[in-house]
Amino acid sequence: MSTVPVSIVRGGTSRAVFLPMSELPADPAARDELCLRLIGSPDPVAVDGLGGGVSSNSKVMFVGPATSPGADLESLFAQVSPAERDVDWAGNCGNISAAVSAYALDEGMLRLRGRQADVRVRNLNTGSVFELSHPLLDGRLSPAGDFRLDGVPGTAARIDVRFLRPGGSVTGARLSGFEATLIDVANPVVILRAADLGVDAGTGPAELNADAGLLARLEELRAEGARAMGLAPSRVVPRVALVAPGGDGCLLARMTSVGRVHHALPGTGLLALGAAVALGGSVIDLPPAPETVIRHPKGQATVSAQVLDGRLEWVALARSARIILRGEASL
């Protein structure tokens, strides 16, 4: 029986199986099989693997030292479908990306001294570069802090995640008669007004996911948006965001993830929405602002962005992470 070294890691409001980049098979089919085996898919309860039966816990992240200048580390993300034999490598995960430096420090891939880590990571799925800043204790992510992340129990050390020059062009489109905004920041997202689809943006994910007609319509709009953006077929990207003004200058949002409405909001989805507000000219009915509070089913998150001469320089949010377990997984 073969084994691979793994860590189970929470990043933001998601959880993933982390492996060293050296464990990445060269053959694409073998890569998919490794991820399916680790997660235990396809199975809605993942009884024979390390997944959780939902998209936010059916993730695999490979991490290794950078192989080219401009970054300290490299990451490669795989989104595993809980219900089908499908592994998608088209996009990145913002929540899980927040944990990359913590994992690398824990594995000895990266050695830092002092009280603060500032680590630059190149994501191989998208080519994007992001920075992670967080407190250190004995060369690792500090195990304690007072940062509270909605959707995660307790408090932890704050990790600031900043995506550098992530693109961010805002394009208007008509999708099946609906006015939409197409934006590609960290991951591509199709943004629609919830009211245009007859949806209350404050409705919980369970109720939305029980509406098969709505999910089918969102999938059709997602596919239409993908064609408009020139994207290759993917079950993960683009995501679809339904938005509405949330009062007090906030944005209320719900977002799809692998065919269902996410229990909170994907990290890259938060970044895209915050960037859309900062850039202006989208279907989001808020004035352009460098900071946006986005309300989601588990609470709220704040996204910061800097725009210079109409160009998105960076977009950022705060997360937390925890190494839950280190060990070996049997294949």
From TrEMBL:
<protein>
    <recommendedName>
        <fullName>Methylitaconate Delta-isomerase</fullName>
    </recommendedName>
</protein>
<dbReference type="Pfam" id="PF04303">
    <property type="entry name" value="PrpF"/>
</dbReference>
<dbReference type="GO" id="GO:0016853">
    <property type="term" value="F:isomerase activity"/>
</dbReference>
<keyword id="KW-0413">Isomerase</keyword>
<dbReference type="InterPro" id="IPR007400">
    <property type="entry name" value="PrpF-like"/>
</dbReference>
<comment type="similarity">
    <text>Belongs to the PrpF family.</text>
</comment>
